[in-house]
Write a structure and sequence with these properties.
229 residues, alpha/beta, Ribulose 1,5 Bisphosphate Carboxylase/Oxygenase, Rossmann fold, 4-stranded antiparallel beta sheet, 8 helices, 9 strands, 31% helix
């Protein structure tokens, strides 16, 4: 059963013509009628089916307007980098003992960063970290000697873009409390990242089939892109 609050929303919004992101953000905010600070989310449907293979997108983007989320960051590194990691704001820092804790299932963090040397040991925990999407990855900047920058990015507004097997990408561009410009900047940053991924995958034709925007407890609207991706 739908709540009284939900029944007050406009109906069949998915069937409306697509609108520019600048026009939709005020509408989405108006639909944020809950007491908590709802997320503003995008859902992309991409053209992941090609003749002989699938397009697999996995990258990170630094959102200029931030994410509005506090991320608990853990770092696996050598003793020589422990101080640097702590001063950079890491919530958990450790070496071999920390790896053993992870192996036993102790994973009270949301982002894991590793130095290349320690990654050799950490890579053996693929079955533990992989299913939770916590395995550090050089492509995503989470396997690096520059732990300071990696921690800063993870804390300040870094978001991962990754499609599922059906070609869906779900990503947040911020919160209702963000001003419109912050949300628009974050949207554009994600579009730029997808455009870059299209070039990297040498995709023929369009990458993005459709884009919808919604809030955590709201209804969705189709977004009109300013350019073909």
């Amino acid at each position: 059963m739908r709540s009284k609050r939900y029944k007050k929303f406009p109906e069949k919004t998915k069937e409306l013509p697509s609108e520019n992101i600048e026009n939709l953000i005020p509408v989405i905010k108006k639909n944020c009628t809950t007491k908590f600070d709802e997320s503003v989310d995008l859902n992309f449907q991409i053209n992941n089916k090609q003749k002989k293979n699938e397009i697999n997108i996995r990258t990170v983007v630094n959102l200029p307007g931030g994410t509005g989320k506090k991320v608990k960051v853990a770092v696996v590194c050598e003793d020589a980098k422990t101080k640097e990691a702590k001063e950079a704001g890491a919530d958990i820092v450790g070496g071999d003992e920390f790896i053993e804790k992870i192996k036993s299932g102790e994973m009270n963090f949301e982002k894991l960063i590793s130095t290349p040397t320690m990654m050799i040991k950490l890579s053996k925990l693929g079955k533990v970290l992989g299913p939770k999407g916590l395995m550090p990855n050089p492509k995503l900047g989470s396997v690096t000697e520059d732990v300071k920058t990696a921690i800063k990015n993870a804390k300040s507004g870094q978001s991962e873009i990754r499609n599922d097997k059906d070609g869906n990408i779900g990503v947040s561009i911020g919160k209702k409390s963000f001003n419109d410009n912050q949300l628009i900047q974050n949207f554009n940053a994600i579009i730029d990242a997808l455009e870059k991924e299209k070039s990297n995958n040498t995709l023929k034709g369009e990458l993005v089939k459709s884009v919808f925007i919604t809030s955590t407890m709201g209804v969705s609207y189709k977004v009109k892109l300013g350019k073909v991706i």
